[in-house]
Design goal:
Number of strands: 9
Distance between the termini: 25 Å
Structural class: alpha+beta
Largest sheet: 9 strands, antiparallel
Radius of gyration: 16 Å
Shape: globular
């Protein structure tokens, strides 16, 4: 049985880096994003996330579209991506269904399936692309102890 919840997430300003291709680029891409944040005098807030803009179940990984995001502190203006690919944008308020998965990243698949089932069984519909919020630092956490929130934007069914 899955332990899941729905939370309202307020609108927020995020630094982001659009990506295409293999997810193995993720560690280097997070380094690029956080280096850009620091170089631009911005302050991250909360934990980083990946938004999956294409369906990993149907899109070959070499063609996958995804985006790294991290919320920012303060009233930061929108910035179009520069030569590094990084920018700043507003993400609108939304309701999100979520669950926490413990274990290595390559085992996340079943958590997605269970959360999708929970969403439908509890009167919600998926309203946007899923995301993963990384609650553990892989640099100092064993893979079996990684904690990852799996999230889907949802809307209540009539």
């Amino acid at each position: 049985m899955i332990d899941a919840n729905v939370d309202h997430v307020e609108s927020e300003t995020v630094a982001y880096l659009p990506m295409c291709g293999p997810y193995a680029k993720m560690p280097q891409a997070f380094g690029t994003l956080y280096g850009w944040i620091q170089a631009n005098g911005l302050t991250p807030k909360g934990m980083p996330r990946t938004v999956y803009l294409s369906d990993p179940a149907t899109t070959p990984e070499a063609e996958a579209d995804w985006e790294l995001q991290t919320a920012l502190v303060g009233d930061v203006g929108v910035r179009t991506p520069d030569a590094s690919g990084c920018g700043v944008k507003r993400v609108e308020a939304r309701d999100e269904a979520w669950t926490v998965y413990r274990g290595p990243y390559d085992g996340l698949g079943p958590a997605y399936g269970e959360l999708v089932g929970w969403i439908a069984a509890n009167g919600y519909a998926i309203a946007g692309p899923p995301s993963e919020v990384y609650l553990s630092d892989p640099a100092d956490t064993a893979p079996e102890d990684y904690l990852t929130e799996v999230r889907f934007p949802v809307r209540r069914m009539p």
